[in-house]
């Protein structure tokens, strides 16, 4: 008997376009993430008429949603078959902080947990903190440089008074009355200043180039006039 093959598109939610999460099937037969269809129907509560985002069929009263266990198992199997295997860390790679002995290559670093994770431990991290906002960035070996050594918090504030990065605790403590902004805002401002300086330099170069061309033209004209006089 031939083995059934599934693609991710077959089990994707048409609302969030991701793999089904806590899948539910509504009366018309279409399936969605529990949170996606709940959010969609919450917006239709005033009309008391609930529709399918895909085929637009309407229902009244609001259908009761129950998680599709069988569909959830199929989606989980699909995740397992498409899961990328972890790779052992090599020279120059960022190592996973959770691997006990043989360290795998880290793929992401969490700015909340202050750890780097390989593919396998990243999935565990995402399941553990489901629904909570944890800022992930590409794996970096400079994670400790982004942390306040005094308070063990992320250096996400820039003190313009002291010209240094600080954490939230620093801001409400020794930098309380200082001029502070987020590091993202300061980075944007520095980039704007850099772009402006670059434009000024380019304009100066163009003006000097223009004057040089005019000077060359004047010298050439002078030579022609001098030769003609002889």
Structure notes:
The chain has 230 residues and is of the alpha+beta class. It has three domains: 8-82, Herpes Virus-1, CATH 3.30.40; 88-146, no CATH class; 148-222, Classic Zinc Finger (Double Stranded RNA Binding Domain). It is built from five helices and ten strands. It has a three-stranded antiparallel β-sheet with strand order 6-5-7. A three-stranded antiparallel β-sheet has the order 9-8-10. The longest helix has 47 residues, at 183-229. It is extended, with a radius of gyration of 30 Å. The protein starts with 22 loop residues before the first strand and ends with a helix.
Task: List the defining traits of the structure above.
single chain, 230 residues, alpha+beta, Herpes Virus-1, Double Stranded RNA Binding Domain, 3-stranded antiparallel β-sheet, extended, disordered N terminus, FinTRIM family, member 56, Znf_B-box, metal-binding
Would you list the SSEs in sequence order as H and E?
EEHEEHEEHEEEHEH
> How much of the sequence is in beta strands?
5-15%
- Helix proportion: 25-40%
The separation of the N and C termini measures 102 Å
In total, the number of strands is 10
